[in-house]
Amino acid sequence: MARPLQALHGSSAALSTAILNISRLTHYRHIEYQPLHRATPSASSQFTPLRNPMAQTSEADATIRETPCAAIVEAEEEGGVRINQYLVTKVLGQGAYGIVSLATDTTDGTQYAMKEYSKYKLRRQAQLQSPGASRGRGWGQRRANPAPAIDPLAPIKREVAIFKKLRHPHIIRLYEVLNDPDQDALYMVYEMCERGPVLDMGRDRTAAALSEPTARTYFTMTLLGLEYLHDSGIVHRDIKPDNLLLNQDGVLKMVDFGVSEMFTRRADAVHTAAGSPAFMPPELCRAHHGDVSGTKADLWSLGVTLYCFVTGHLPFHGDSVPAMYEAILQQPLTLPEHLSAPLADLLQGMLNKDPDQRWDLATIRKHPWVTADALAPLVPSVENCKDSVTEVTDQEVNNAIHSISSLTTVLKAAMIFKSRYRQRLAAEGRGKEDGAPGA
Fold first, then answer.
1. From 105, 151, 200, 238, active-site residue
2. Is 115 annotated as a binding residue?
3. 238 catalytic per annotation
4. How many angstroms separate the Cα of 254 from the Cα of each of 125, 229, 360?
5. What is the pLDDT of residues 297-337, one digit of tens each?
6. pTM: predicted TM-score of the whole model, two decimal places
7. CATH numbers and ranges of domains, the chain
8. Taking a C-beta distance cutoff of 8 angstroms, is the pair 21, 14 a contact?
9. Under DSSP, is residue 321 helix (H, G, I), strand (E, B) or coil?
10. H or E stretch including 196?
11. Which of 65, 118, 128, 140: disulfide with 7, CB 3.0–4.6 Å?
12. Which residues of the chain have pLDDT under 70?
């Protein structure tokens, strides 16, 4: 029983209308990553990540594997399921879209996160976010008399192809994609982020606050990753601490682009509210809000994330989603007295309720708190974004996803994963696993 694996590379993070259409999250429900360690930056990195982010990791230069066929067999003697060179031994979590599993490459011992997506939901989201006219890079174009769709994955292949080309040290990387043409599931193999989220807010949405130097390090990593996404024409739309993970070296990776969206340089408008309510900007909390700036929305969410870093709690509170929206719209921003004056100034600029007055990324990256009073300036934008994605070829689109040849193998693996997951939850008396990497 065999199934082809396709090797994609890229970043995490997912596929939405922006490639990232492929994240397996709903708007408000996400799998949270269980941290294995609390990573603390060294003194040498307490102000900012390495000056050249492209030199922080060799992953951008690695060759993406092309695996033409993958066989799935149950390997009881190894305590898991073998999928080609991968041994899947542990279910990390389950979200609305399916199972997230730990997969180990038996050729070198490297661990990955294997995640399942609903092709129907991805296609549906792509159609909803592509109302007709092209929004850049040929995405969303329609013909007057479209021919019947031959390839059911056609609406998302371009997003996959773009995701495959994203290369930045602070964007999670996608390695392989598996598709069964007879089933709704699409499986993806991502890099692991062993240390989990930068800040584990928990179910009560509180956590121990980070020091300002530590928060600065993680904030600048996120800022550089976001700048790269925006330069590639992508808005994330769900920035929050849970979606900022650390690998074993303490390098931050942005994940969960499940609601992200592509925009053109001329208009970065997004049409629908998406993401986590507590991190949503005021302009998206209003009914009938119309088009809003996706980049400004991302910067608000990043501001809320920074607030969480340094306080350990959210800036606005509500007992329900409507109450949260009302608080975001009406409550004034309150800053704790222990925050430094430069940090307070930055938060006020990023959390301006008027998107037209909210600071843009170019202003934020030069702020004294971000650069530690010019002692740790960020790498220049032109260097940070030198590998941004500007286009994909027809060949890259056509090769974005490979098919799995055997339906039976996928069903067998899915049943094994789900059975073991339910057994473990029953044994532990829990309803949800906290250890899924960027599900």
1. 238
2. yes
3. yes
4. 21, 10, 19
5. 999 999 999 999 999 999 999 999 999 999 999 999 999 99
6. 0.70
7. 2-398 (1.10.510.10)
8. yes
9. helix
10. strand 196-197
11. 65
12. 1-79, 93-98, 122, 125-156, 180-182, 257-275, 288-289, 400, 402-426, 428-439
